[in-house]
Amino acid sequence: MDAARTVQEYAALIRVFGLKLPTGWFGRPYDNLHELTLVEPRRHRLLIELDHRLLLSFAGRPLVAAEGKEASITAFDQLVFDWSEYGEPTPHCKVFSEGGEVRLIG
User: Fold this and answer.
1) What is the largest CA-CA distance in the chain?
2) In this structure, are residues 52 and 65 in contact, taking their beta carbons and an 8 Å threshold?
3) Residues 62-94: tens digit of each pLDDT
4) Which stretches within 1-106 are classed as H helix?
5) pLDDT tens digits along 21-36
6) pTM score, two decimals?
7) CA gap 51, 19 in Å, rounded
8) CA-based angle 64:70:74, to the nearest 5?
9) What gap in Å lies between CA 53 and CA 23, rounded to an integer?
10) Spatial distance between the Cα atoms of 79 and 56, rounded to a whole number of angstroms
11) Which residues sit opposite 47 in a β-bridge?
12) For the chain, what is the radius of gyration of the CA atoms?
């Protein structure tokens, strides 16, 4: 199954989930919950948008595996995490060029 479809099926089943980046939780663990608002496969990239504010752009050919209430995204060459704050439109951007794992945790 392809990466985008796995993300879509996971989000349809779980609905809301926490986000754990390669450096740790985004927000409070098990408290900040997000919804999938877009998943778009590109030739050498996978785009995932959460809450219309958090954009994860995975370069390369990431692998997505979902089991139970968790999904993991690995084997990417680079992740660009572009997000704006919930109370303010202040933009932020973080680049993960060392690879790692991103987890969606329901």
Assistant:
1) 38
2) no
3) 999 999 999 999 999 999 999 998 888 899 999
4) 3-14
5) 999 999 999 899 999 9
6) 0.94
7) 12
8) 30
9) 19
10) 7
11) 40, 57
12) 13
